[in-house]
Amino acid sequence: MIKNTRLGYGAVAILFHWTMALLIIGMLGLGLYMVRLPQSDPNAFALFQLHKSIGFVVLTLAVLRLAWRLVNPSPKLPADMPVWEKGVAHLGHTGLYAMMFLLPLSGWLVVSASPWGIPTIVFNLFEMPHLPVPGDKGQAEVFASAVHEYGAYFLILLIAGHVAAAFKHHFIARDETLKRMVSVRTSHAA
Ligand code: HEM
Ligand code: HEM
Q: Where exactly are the transmembrane stretches of this chain (predicted)?
């Protein structure tokens, strides 16, 4: 029930999946919204701090989730799925994992290299130190900012494909793929 089996996801993987899906989709929306605010907007500072704070939660969860995934068996994809489709699914999941790290890390690099030197106070509780940035900080910021922005666009595409695939399994192939990411019972009865 807690751990995965070869047939389905356990409670921990399901909880990680949906908590992080919610946080990451919210962060994409918040990021795109806050960068469009005028600098004079009275809420901009607080929204950036919130974005950075939740970003560190996502990074922490990503580390724990990856560790959990490595000590668990991964449920097998449906046996009747063509090999190429399984390949695409694995590639997509790997890409999603990669972006769960790349987005927070590139964001952290943006604020660390920024000439403004604005501290990150995580949920108003403690200050997160900046990453050491050797060399040209200006160049590092431009690079990190591009990685963060285009990484976010790429992640949106990945999520769109991922959700479309989940719906295709559920409504067209009518298999257990979506159900086993929703309920432990289904995942183990399959
Ligand atoms: C799940 C993790 C994250 C997601 C999905 C995410 C997403 C985004 C998005 C969509 C934007 C708007 C990009 C644009 O149009 O320019 C943005 C901007 C930004 N994010 Fe994040 N972000 C994440 C984590 C972080 C973290 C951890 C930090 C810093 C500690 C951070 C700092 C920033 C900053 C400073 C900007 C302003 C734009 C820039 O200077 O590049 N983000 N983020
Ligand atoms: C409403 C949105 C979403 C739906 C309907 C959905 C659905 C699913 C389903 C059905 C699976 C199981 C696939 C299988 O059995 O192999 C899955 C796995 C997965 N999903 Fe999502 N998902 C959503 C959002 C997201 C988001 C936003 C992310 C990350 C950015 C994500 C990352 C993953 C990963 C990495 C896996 C592989 C299993 C694991 O290692 O945890 N999903 N998703």
A: 7-33, 53-71, 96-118, 150-171
pLDDT digits 0-9 by tens, 60-96: 999 999 999 999 999 999 888 999 999 999 999 999 9
Give the amino acid at 20: M
Write down the domain spans for the chain.
11-189
Atom index in ligand 2 nearest the CA of residue 13 equals 41
Reference 139, options 168, 167, 116, 110; nearest CA is: 110
83: helix, strand or coil: helix
Degrees, nearest 5: CA angle 158-162-167: 150
The verdict on the CB of residue 35 being under 6 Å from ligand 1 is: yes
CATH class name, domain 11-189: mainly alpha
List Cα–Cα distances, 139 to 77, 134, 135, in angstroms. Answer: 43, 11, 9
CB distance 149 to ligand 1 below 6 Å:
yes
pLDDT for the residue numbered 190? 47
| Residue 64 Cα to ligand 2 middle (Å) | 16
CA-nearest residue for atom 37, ligand 2, is 93
Closest residue CA from atom 40 of ligand 1: 145
